[in-house]
Amino acid sequence: QYCVVELRGGGGGAEAFFFFFKGAEVYTNGSARHMNGTELTRMKEVEFEKNPSEPMGVTLKLNDKQRCTVARILHGGMIHRQGSLHEGDEIAEINGKSVTNQTVDQLQKILKETNGVVTMKIVPNLQGRSRACEMYMRAQFDYDPTKDDLIPCKEAGLKFQTGDIIQIINKQDPNWWQGRVESSAADFAGLIPSPELQEWRVASKSKAREGSQSCSPFGKKTKCKGKYLAKHSSIFDQLDVISYEEVVQLPAFKRKTLVLIGAPGVGRRHIKNALLTKYPEKFSYPAPHTTRTQRKDEENGQEYYFISNEAMTKSISGNELLEYGSFQGNMFGTKIETIQKIHEQGRIALVDVEPQTLKGLRTADFAPLVVFIAPTITAPQMENLQMIQKESDAIRTTYGHFFDVVLVNNDVDESVKGVEEAMERATSTPQWVPVSWVY
């Protein structure tokens, strides 16, 4: 037995509620109420018109009772905008036809090929409605869903590149978040691998290369204690695994440090010296400390600070150096204090460091603008230029997610102008910065 209550809106859509009274056999998803020993199931009929050129923005799955349910609603898609379906809703019929014994692929195909008015009978999921989520992440890797064998629906995936700002809208699924590229004109969201999934993937590939067997959290019956959580895995102690970086947008502000990164021989020193000569009141280079013997024509603190081996060793053990190394038996290092003094003078510290130093530099204390200097693409590719290009590619592959600006050094004057323009943009337009700079 059942009764029907139909509600019809002025916009042409319609909803009808079917209340089924059943005895021994209960058709419910947990929303039933007891009425004198009889189960009451609330079934809802929804009707909407599907545009053949627009995806519905919904994915389906079979629950543990092999019933068709809504797996996820893509933010901004047609279903999300009209609000007739929710995650967890159980679909009983599509256009008057039962969906019983249909596979997920068959159901998705039916929805994809259906045009015009679509009518569904559903058992609404009244529990666990997902809450709105809004955060922003900077992508630290390139992603193409069409090449991802793990994604549940390639068509629902979101393609992005390193450096893209992604607005995270839903992260209820531990493996697949919903997001949209902030600069994109598209209003709807797509699926992206969650940080844990991406980190597990990278770590698994590394383990596979080492010949070790890793456990997959995606096998149907596979259980692996600890799974792929970075904080519980020794893999992540050995790898600098990258996925996303949470960011916030700040109003324009002054950068304290200009960082030039590039392969040896790419021309960083020429660009640095040109900037220091052109803007002596704006930029200042932090003179390194060294254990080398001071020459007669050298002034302490001008090009170098001359210190003893004991003082250098103490500075290293006290973590006072941004970076350090040795050359011809002498130690060289840049003190953090030297950079801080430049900031206190109201100048921008101009540094050309090794790329592995970037992680420690990207803090609110240094507030850096990181500029990567790429080798020229116009000069003949002689052997030395090929070596520079090869090393440059390696640096970009490993550290590219830290770069704010990439400049090709075809001409020093042009590169200097490019740096000037980048600094101007950074101080005159809103900036996306790591959330750790603010909180």
UniProtKB/TrEMBL annotation:
<dbReference type="InterPro" id="IPR008145">
    <property type="entry name" value="GK/Ca_channel_bsu"/>
</dbReference>
<dbReference type="GO" id="GO:0016020">
    <property type="term" value="C:membrane"/>
</dbReference>
<dbReference type="InterPro" id="IPR036028">
    <property type="entry name" value="SH3-like_dom_sf"/>
</dbReference>
<feature type="domain" description="SH3">
    <location>
        <begin position="132"/>
        <end position="202"/>
    </location>
</feature>
<feature type="domain" description="PDZ">
    <location>
        <begin position="45"/>
        <end position="126"/>
    </location>
</feature>
<dbReference type="InterPro" id="IPR020590">
    <property type="entry name" value="Guanylate_kinase_CS"/>
</dbReference>
<dbReference type="InterPro" id="IPR001478">
    <property type="entry name" value="PDZ"/>
</dbReference>
<dbReference type="InterPro" id="IPR001452">
    <property type="entry name" value="SH3_domain"/>
</dbReference>
<keyword id="KW-0728">SH3 domain</keyword>
<dbReference type="InterPro" id="IPR008144">
    <property type="entry name" value="Guanylate_kin-like_dom"/>
</dbReference>
<dbReference type="Pfam" id="PF00018">
    <property type="entry name" value="SH3_1"/>
</dbReference>
<dbReference type="InterPro" id="IPR035475">
    <property type="entry name" value="MPP1_SH3"/>
</dbReference>
<feature type="domain" description="Guanylate kinase-like">
    <location>
        <begin position="255"/>
        <end position="424"/>
    </location>
</feature>
<dbReference type="Pfam" id="PF00595">
    <property type="entry name" value="PDZ"/>
</dbReference>
<dbReference type="InterPro" id="IPR027417">
    <property type="entry name" value="P-loop_NTPase"/>
</dbReference>
<protein>
    <recommendedName>
        <fullName>55 kDa erythrocyte membrane protein</fullName>
    </recommendedName>
</protein>
<dbReference type="Pfam" id="PF00625">
    <property type="entry name" value="Guanylate_kin"/>
</dbReference>
<keyword id="KW-0564">Palmitate</keyword>
<dbReference type="InterPro" id="IPR050716">
    <property type="entry name" value="MAGUK"/>
</dbReference>
<keyword id="KW-0449">Lipoprotein</keyword>
<keyword id="KW-0472">Membrane</keyword>
<dbReference type="InterPro" id="IPR036034">
    <property type="entry name" value="PDZ_sf"/>
</dbReference>
<comment type="similarity">
    <text>Belongs to the MAGUK family.</text>
</comment>
